[in-house]
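Changelog-linked ticket: zinc ion example.
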Amino acid sequence: MPLVDPVTMSSSAIVKGAVAQSTSTTKSTPGSQATESSTTTAGSSSSLATLRPVQIKQTPAAQTVRHALPAALTALYLLRFDALVTNPVPVMLNALPVVAAFQMTYALLCLPAAGEPASKSNRKPRPGEKKKGGDIGSSTIITALLASVLTSIVTPFLYFAMVLFGAPFLTHGSHTFLCAAHLALLTLFPLFYVHGVDSAAWAAVGGFRAPLDETFGGLVGGIVGAWLGAVPIPLDWDREWQRWPVTILCGAYGGYLLGRVLGGTLFWGKKF
Amino acid sequence: MSFRRNGNLSSTLLLIAANVLIPVAIVIFATGFFPYKPLLPGLAQYEPLDGYGEPPEAPFDKLVFMVVDALRSDFVYTTNSGFKFTQSLIRHGAAIPFTAHATSPTVTMPRLKAITTGSVPSFLDVVLNIDEGDESSSLASQDTWLAQMKAKDTGKLVMYGDDTWLKLFPGTFDRADGTTSFFVADFTEVDHNVTRNIPGELRNDDWNTMILHYLGLDHIGHKGGPRSPHMVPKQREMDGIVSQIYKAIETQDHLKSTLFVLCGDHGMNDAGNHGASSPGETSPALLFISPKLKGLQKNQDSPLPDAEDFQFYSTVEQSDLAPTLAALLGFPIPKNNLGVLIADFLSIWPKKADQAYLLHENARQIQTVISAASGTKTFDGALPAESCASPTSDYEQLACEWQGPSNNLMSARVGDDMDSQWALPVVTWLRKAQELMSGMASNYDMSRLILGQITALLAVIFSLSAAIKTVSPTRSLTPLLVISIAYSIMMFASSYVEEEQHFWYLATSTWFGYLTLRGFKRANTTFPAHLLLTAFPVLASLRLLRAWNQTGQKHAGTPDIVKLFIEPHPHFLWLLVGLTYFWTHRQLVYSFHGRIPVPINYPVMTGLVLAAFTFKAAFTLEDAPELVVEFVKSSLLDFTRGASLIARARAVFVGLGLVAMAAMGFILWEMRGAGGNRKRSRRKKGPAEAITTLQHLYTILALTQSRTANIPVFLIFNLLYWFLSSEIDAPDGTGLSTVELGISSLLLQYASFFAMGGSNAISSVDLSNAYNGVSNFNVVLVGILTYVGNWAGPVWWAFGTVVLLGEIWRRDQRQKRLGSGNNGKRGSDEKEEEAEAKQMLEGGQISPFKTYVAVTTLFTAFSVAAVMAACTILRTHLFVWTVFSPKYLYCVAWSLVQHLVINVGLSGLLFWLGSF
Ligand SMILES: [Zn+2]
Ligand SMILES: [Zn+2]
């Protein structure tokens, strides 16, 4: 069984930094983020055109935000947990803009916007040249806005997917929808920011063939976490937090943060 | 090559060993877990008690015993009850009310056993309750108060109502009219058949015992729950009968010493079902009624406000009825009784010596039971004081504690002056003995439990190594192992056992989500189109299945598709039902196409499907008339008016049998043709297609045995089946592998069981179709019909899997031929195909059927071992009789019937037939 399907391979697999592909095949580690390293291919299948793992920007601001935001999200979650249990809908609704701001900051400061940064650095691969820190140009902001629009478009579909996997359909509509919105904001927004609407990239993500990085790790973690969140619901402990959708949201946040941290460090560049 | 063959042989042997060990383990464990309780034989006689005179005179000589099935305590005692007359009797002291605690399993037969023998029936009585014709459940040879009343020879025994009594006491009743509860939609006729006998019998003076057992109230519960609009009118009807009998006792001279007992055999839960041990189910009402009882001056308040726990007045054990009746009617206490004489009645006997006699007789009888159980003669002489300082067993402890009560009885006998509470220590001691003897924990045979456990673990090891040897690459077993291990862990939590369906639903959706996503790799469509056209229909089908019937304990009775969309819209239901039958008809005709000429094929299949459809309509008209729409009634039923349900069902079964035989005939014919004459044309169908005929015939059987509201589920099954089939035919070798098909089949078998309303509770066993076409009880037939009625979905998937396995097998052969580049010559093609088939069967290559068996065996071994471990470790847990024992019985059904008989036996036969 071939690992990569001929169909996908031939048609549209994208290469971020296609120029560099032939020049460098050394495996990079997330620690050595010189300019070149962002152009190297990851993984052993360098002969195939594949998706590269996303590099976090090297600016001090990006590195700070990268570590500070997961902590801030965790703090926010723990702080609002009791309120979430008693009053899920308003709490989730109010938290949504805060989480959106967090994710927006994260994307703008840490992530390469769709297409642009990688190609920019590829066009002038001068060794030793430091990329200008935090150059949030108008185009990146537009990318971020587009990504948030895409995220909100995809939220109803995510809601629908949750219903298909067993979320209540006739009741708890706003609960499930807000939960889907949180999940989309956490896991899909960074991916939209990084990949845009690149169908080949999304095919790789959807087929679980993309290499692990903070964005894809976060997606996998968030989905697995939300999935595992359904496990404690049937228990007869009669706790308030067993109510829909507290455990799902809890699993989504926990899984997302874990997946993002692990995907960005330990498993960076690895594939399933 | 030879290594490969050896590996294949050894894995086959391991697989066989595992499948032999599974039933062995189940039997060994069951004999230790459900021990056979030794019963004292013979009828109790009055034996002289040391120092006492004659047995005290009994205040009553006749008994009217009225059972209202599922009469929960609050139905009689609370403000919104319909029992107004009975409540007035309570206020006047003519009725002494109790809440009688019924132990789990709260189903009729074990409850009647407890009521009549005074003992606690073993859990296996549940199985025998379903298997109603079993001889061993008969009480004809046991000591009961019925046998004692008969032995008194002061009158005849008569019985009107639930024929469970006739099955329990064959030959005991002189006059009887049994009613059956085939159709729970019957609220009135079933009770009218009892009531019409009462006036005549009240005039007769030739009986000393009259049993009445009303089923209507139970039926209303099953149909509409305790708050059904039919409930209070039914209670008023029952109250009217109480009034009728009470007034007869008051006025008629030959009835003046009649004791009238009104009780429920069990209660019901909020959904109107029973079987488990929720407070509602275990709290039936119990009343002793007679004008004579006014003398006790026990006037009590009535009605009472609602109580959450259903405990009203004082609570007694259901088994206490036996010794109390013995005292009140004057006969020896039945030998195996564990009940305690209800102390409220002691003051009927003015003399203390008489009261002491009754208590002492109760104690002595229970001591005999204890001695028999413990195998010692603990109560024969006085125990040495030193052994009482540190008793070695519960029995010894009990014997030591007997000293105090025994002294009290002694003083009461000789007429010493004593305070009014003198009897209390005796009753306390009796209760303690009752508790000890009713507790099951001491009865486990630990060595058998452990031996069964070890055998099951061996089966796990064997099946695991067989699977590793059979399946390549080994890592494709990972999902199966994850499912098996997660399931095993889950078995240790009672709530996960009760809510097992969630595990299968989530696992199935995830697995099929993975399969559909994976399918995108080779799809020629865009991602959204693939999602819309493949992933969405598959996952939506699973979501519909999940919501079809709400099952489990936690949310029992909450709305589901059946309650929200099917029951309120019968037209919609019949549209879907008609579509299901039409679809099956189409497939059946198609599978015979080319074998038999159209002028025969079409009418025969149409007749068969119409017979099945009209049977379903006629059955539903009896079972759930509110679901039958006018159109169905007028067009279909009038068309075949007059045919009885039994005749209709038999017509369907005979038709199915004949067509199945024809299909088998074609298979054998074509097998012979294939062996001798190689020149069968391409257009002619092979046995593989004949197997699909059997599959469609089974679909008709499954429809016949399923509840009407569940029939549309088979349309959903067909959609999922079509998806799996399309996955097999993937062009480039990325299609479904045998292991993946095995996992899909396993998941769908379990998910479909729960989707059709199954659960791990005894109360969810659906008996409504168990007697289709059966007039005289036949254990085998009723057993098969019950199994198909409850496992219709899982068996359907087993059939489907065999057909799909055949598709995989032919696909692999095709690919091998293409791979060897030998696809030029058409003539030798077929020869080779057959040669390869032979080779495959003889072990040159692993047959997909073997891989499938390896998959199901692995899971079955894991589940059996896990359920046994859970039952052993949690054997003293509160839930062992309500959650884990029923789970064990379900696990037995899954592994012995579904796995061994269906997935290995039947599927193996079909695969073998289809592989020629
Ligand atoms: Zn009953
Ligand atoms: Zn019932």
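Closing comment: Example verified and attached. Confidence is low (pLDDT under 50) at residues 130-135, 675-684, 822-828, 840-844 of chain B. Chain B touches chain A at residues 493-496, 498-499, 502, 505-506, 509-510, 513, 517-518, 520-522, 524, 526-527, 536, 539-540, 542-543, 546-547, 552, 554, 559, 564, 733-734 (CB under 8 Å).
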